[in-house]
């Protein structure tokens, strides 16, 4: 077994945060654990065989139709994305990134650390893959490592549940918050300048306006105006998703957003094909299989469906499993007034279909149903998952809070479960109405089942992983599929449809009631991997089917 030597420090991002201004009685805004002694580490048992679970893919796209200014702008956006990447490292890993990486000699181990943004395996329930490494803090580096939930919930301080703050201690041991624009002043200022420079090259005035507003947001810590502006863009070929966005990394409460970035090239033809679906959202909302009070909110009329080639991932979006579709903004007010934009990352989606989903189906789906595994169905199921984030309910029915606030750290996983199941509901409705004209219902249901096997391999620590386990176990109890003696699965169409409707009702009711205890009970009952399923997943590993993909990406890969 290869022996790896490095020094783990528990000081959180001292280099990034040392320039932050702070009151005289406050310590540097970093984690409070003392630096550890230099220690020898080795891969834990079984870790060596996981170093190859990611299939490398060149992240490229056709840039020939872009102007010289557009290509230059992509380069600037990639530069800004690299800053987002460093900021997410600080949020995810309570230690010194460069010290960790510089001390690793084995290039495969170093790459695995880079993929996971630390020494914890994101697709194995965040288990450490190096000896001598403690469990990953549930709150990552958003909170002091020694902070308990009881202490946090009993404390009162400004910005306590703010999306865009870190929580630290002053020298008296008291908790306080630091806005991101203060904690990361120099980095965000540099990113803002790159966005403003990119704005001068934008051919779309709406996109130029968005870039300038997003730059302002980096410096002000107020993102809503730029979110509204992002929803007003329709004619831009180049796009970005950049900033502190998703809260998945905060598994303690789900309150704090991690930095990330996607640099995107819009497929104008594919996007035009998808436009027609947005007009059906109000009727689909009204038809949800749940009591009226849980579907009273109407999605905003500005909802958009677009297809893109992604040319750069950074930060949270690049950590562990790679996102292939996006639904944003997350701001509930923007969603209700403007709707959301659903972005389908076509080239990344195709890579996962070819490299992972089809090989999985060849092992786990009965031969007579494999003909129903199609890219059109995979694309639609993925797309309508994102569309479904805009359906349902954003605020509890008693008006006391948002669903996200009421369900705390459980909100993200339940929301992903809602999007999965309502996405399938939408496909069913639109196919039967003749709006979707590609394929037949068996394609979508069978590809959906194969997609569960793909996603449950991400582990139960992620929001998507928990959602997949709940759905798999719920479907199993409802008889939505059968398993033969060869360990191959077949969809029961009628039973899957019934299970889809009943699970949709259950999740929407839990969200609308803000039922934190009920969600916890659902996760405890159905959020685990049964032994039989684990044995089937082990067969996929034995067949050397990758769990996910990783990218060779950047300006050189794009020829810029």
Automatic annotation (TrEMBL):
For this UniProt entry, which segments traverse the membrane?
none
Q: Name one Pfam family in it.
A: Peptidase_M49
Q: Which organism was this protein described from?
A: Pseudidiomarina homiensis
What is the protein name given in its UniProt record? Zn-dependent hydrolase
- List UniProt keywords, sorted A-Z: Hydrolase, Metal-binding, Signal
The signal peptide stretch is 1-26
Which GO cellular component does the record give, naming just one?
cytoplasm
Q: Which InterPro entries match?
A: Peptidase_M49
Its Gene Ontology molecular function terms? dipeptidyl-peptidase activity; metal ion binding
Going by the entry's taxonomy, the superkingdom of the source organism is recorded as: Bacteria
């Amino acid at each position: 077994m290869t022996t790896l030597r490095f020094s783990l420090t528990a000081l959180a991002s001292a280099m990034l945060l040392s320039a932050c201004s702070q009151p005289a009685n406050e310590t540097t805004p970093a984690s409070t654990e003392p630096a550890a002694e230099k220690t020898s580490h080795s891969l834990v048992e079984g870790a060596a065989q996981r170093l190859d679970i990611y299939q490398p893919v060149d992240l490229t796209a056709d840039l020939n139709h872009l102007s010289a200014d557009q290509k230059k702008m992509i380069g600037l956006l990639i530069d800004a994305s690299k800053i987002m990447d460093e900021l997410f490292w600080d949020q995810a890993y309570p230690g010194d990134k460069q010290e960790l990486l510089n001390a690793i000699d084995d290039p495969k181990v170093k790459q695995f650390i880079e993929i996971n943004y630390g020494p914890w395996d994101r697709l194995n329930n965040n288990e450490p893959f190096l000896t001598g490494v403690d469990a990953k803090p549930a709150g990552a580096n958003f909170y002091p490592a020694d902070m308990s939930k009881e202490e946090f919930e009993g404390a009162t301080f400004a910005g306590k549940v703010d999306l865009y703050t870190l929580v630290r201690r002053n020298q008296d041991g008291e908790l306080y918050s630091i806005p991101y624009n203060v904690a990361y002043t120099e980095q965000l200022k540099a990113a803002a300048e790159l966005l403003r420079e990119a704005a001068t090259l934008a051919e779309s005035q709406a996109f130029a306006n968005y870039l300038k507003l997003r730059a302002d947001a980096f410096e002000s810590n107020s993102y809503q105006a730029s979110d509204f502006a992002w929803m007003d863009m329709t004619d831009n070929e180049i796009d970005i998703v950049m900033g502190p966005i998703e809260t998945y990394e905060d598994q303690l409460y789900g309150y704090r957003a991690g930095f990330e970035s996607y640099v995107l090239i819009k497929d104008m033809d594919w996007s035009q094909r998808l436009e027609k679906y947005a007009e059906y959202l109000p009727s689909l909302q009204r038809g949800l299989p749940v009591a009226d009070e849980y579907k009273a909110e109407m999605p905003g009329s500005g909802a958009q469906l677009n297809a893109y080639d992604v040319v750069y991932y950074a930060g949270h979006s690049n950590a562990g499993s790679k996102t292939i579709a996006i639904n944003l903004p997350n701001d509930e007010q923007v969603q209700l007034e403007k709707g959301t934009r659903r972005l389908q990352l076509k080239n990344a989606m195709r890579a996962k279909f070819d490299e992972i989903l089809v090989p999985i189906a060849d092992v786990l789906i009965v031969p007579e149903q494999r003909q129903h595994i199609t890219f059109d169905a995979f694309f639609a199921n993925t797309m309508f998952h994102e569309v479904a984030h805009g359906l349902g309910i954003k605020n509890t029915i008693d008006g006391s809070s948002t669903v996200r606030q009421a369900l705390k750290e459980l909100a993200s996983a339940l929301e992903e479960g809602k999007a999965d199941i309502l996405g399938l509901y939408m496909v069913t409705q639109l196919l039967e109405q003749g709006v979707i004209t590609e394929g037949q219902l068996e394609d979508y249901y069978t590809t959906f089942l194969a997609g569960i096997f793909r996603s449950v391999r991400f582990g139960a620590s992620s929001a998507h992983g928990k959602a997949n386990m709940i759905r798999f176990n719920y479907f199993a109890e409802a008889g939505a599929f059968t398993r033969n003696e060869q360990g191959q699965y077949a969809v029961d169409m009628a039973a899957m449809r019934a299970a889809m409707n009943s699970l949709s009702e259950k999740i929407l009711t839990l969200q609308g009631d803000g039922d934190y205890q009920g969600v916890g009970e659902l996760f405890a009952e159905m959020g685990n991997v049964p032994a039989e399923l684990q044995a089937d997943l082990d067969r996929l590993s034995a067949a050397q089917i990758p769990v996910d993909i990783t990218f060779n990406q950047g300006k050189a890969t794009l020829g810029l």
